[in-house]
Amino acid sequence: MSKRTGLPDRARRNFLKGATLAGAAALTTPVAANTPVTALPETRAKAAPPGPRLAAAENMPPVKDPVSQTTSGGDFMVDVFKTLDIEYLAMNCASSFRGLHEAVLNHGGNTKPEILTCPHEEIAVHMAQGYAKIEGKPMAMICHGVVGLQHATMALYNAWCDRVPVIAMGGNIIEANKRGTYPEWVHSAIDPSAIVRDFVKWDDQPTSLQHFAESAVRAYKIATTPPMAPVMLSLDAELQENPISDAETLRIPKLSKVIPPQGDSAALAELAKMLVNAEMPVIICDRVARTPAGMARLVELAETLQCAVVDNAGRMNFPTRHPLNHSFRRVVIAQADVILALEVNDLFGTVNAFSDRIVRATRPNYKKDAKIVTLGSRDLYMKANYQDFARYQEADLSIGGDAEASLPLLIEQVKRLIDDGKKSAFEARGKKLAAAKLAMVERAKSDATIGWDASPITTARMCAEVYGQIKDEDWSLVGASIRLSWPHRLWNFDKPYRWNGLSGGFGVGHNLPASLGAALANKKHGRLTLAFGGDGDFMFVPSTLWTAAHHRIPLLYILHNNRAYHQEYMYLQAMAARHGRGITNTEIGTTIKDPNVDYATVARGFGVHGEGPIIDPTDLGPALKRAIAVVKSGQPALVDVVCDPR
Amino acid sequence: MKQFTTRFERFAVGSLIAATFAVFGFGAAALAQNAGSGDAANGKRVYLADGCFECHGRVGQGGAMNYPAPALAQVEMPIESFMAFLRNGPNDMPAYSASVGQGGSRYLRLSALAARAQAGQGFSAVEQLNAAGVCTGFACRRGRLKPPRRGASE
Question: Angle CA(A349)–CA(A350)–CA(A355) in degrees, nearest 5?
Answer without folding.
Answer: 50
